[in-house]
Design goal:
The chain is 40% helix and 22% strand. The chain has an eight-stranded mixed beta sheet with strand order 5-10-2-1-13-17-18-16, sandwiched between helices. Strands 3-4 form a two-stranded antiparallel sheet. The protein has a two-stranded antiparallel ribbon with strand order 6-9. The N terminus is likely disordered.
Length: 296
């Protein structure tokens, strides 16, 4: 990446001038950012992400961060001698695994993100689904993708019943940046592990977000030849599901993104979190990064 110190002052001014229309357009708008992949584990990318979030807040946007933590959960399970199991891209979550998930997501990972944003000059606050009754959930019924008569038991994996965004809106109004762990609660106060992409998509819909941005470890959605698909409609995505181009861990990610696009989120972007400042490049420049998903 070009060192910013090597950029001529005139070029720096031009970059800022190009960002101005987007700053004006998105002022006061909510941006839901799903934070995951290498961007969460590489120290330089972590710092870039925190700075980007703070910058968005300082120029008048309202970023809301929903984070994952798959690699960190896997490491914690390995330390306990427990092997992770996945069915159709979802982590099987028994009671012991749920304890680890809560400890890692709502503890270690969330507080690291909050600390990084605060260090970068922001005011971040960590939340789980229990805080302010944010995410009510029930046990997910997972139907087999090939045999609709078969149902998989994935343990304490949750399906969202309702999102009450009151606590998120209150924090935004007080200039805080919410950082949300994807853990919901049930009728008996039981905990549920919910896919972070799904939480981000539902939250973006409820908050009437301008954008939903999903940071991943790929350039975006790729076809079977590995070529980036920069613009996808709902119909095209259905075709990619049917022919197996989209499978595994990408299934819940794309499904959540498509639901958000169909439910009123103006634009949904799947971008490469391994690229420094990719989120700013997506939001504040003309250049399209990654894949944009639209409802039609």
């Amino acid at each position: 990446m070009t060192d910013i110190l090597q950029i001529a002052p005139r070029d720096k001014a031009e970059i800022l001038a190009q960002a101005l229309p987007y700053i004006r357009k998105f002022h006061g708008k909510t941006m839901v950012i799903k934070y995951g992949g290498n961007a969460m584990t590489d120290p330089e990318l972590q710092a870039d992400f925190a700075e980007d979030i703070v910058l968005l807040k300082l120029v008048g946007m309202n970023p809301v961060v929903v984070h994952g933590g798959g690699p960190q959960i896997e490491q914690a399970l390995n330390r306990l001698g427990k092997k992770g199991e996945f069915i159709q891209g979802m982590r099987v979550t028994d009671a012991e695994t749920m304890e680890v998930v809560e400890w890692v997501l709502a503890g270690e990972v969330q507080q690291d993100i909050v600390g990084l944003i605060n260090q970068a000059g922001g005011k971040a606050v960590g939340l789980t689904g229990r805080d302010g009754g944010l995410i009510r959930a029930r046990k997910l019924k997972m139907i087999d993708s090939k045999d609709p008569t078969k149902e998989h038991d994935v343990g304490q994996v949750g399906d969202i019943v309702e999102i009450d965004p009151s606590v998120v809106k209150a924090l935004q109004d007080d200039q805080f940046i919410p950082v949300i762990s994807p853990i919901g609660f049930g009728e008996a106060n039981e905990s549920y592990n919910i896919n972070a992409d799904v939480v981000a998509g539902k939250l973006a819909t409820v908050l009437k977000a301008e954008k939903l941005v999903l940071l991943t470890n790929t350039p975006g959605v790729l076809d079977k030849q590995g070529k980036l698909l920069t613009d996808l409609s709902a119909q095209e995505i259905d075709g990619l599901f049917a022919d197996g181009t989209i499978s595994g861990g990408m299934l819940p990610k794309i499904s959540g993104a498509l639901d958000a696009a169909r439910s009123g989120v103006n634009s949904v972007h799947i971008i490469d979190g391994r690229v420094p400042h990719s989120m700013l490049l997506e939001i504040l420049t003309e250049q399209a990064y990654g894949t944009m998903i639209r409802s039609r």
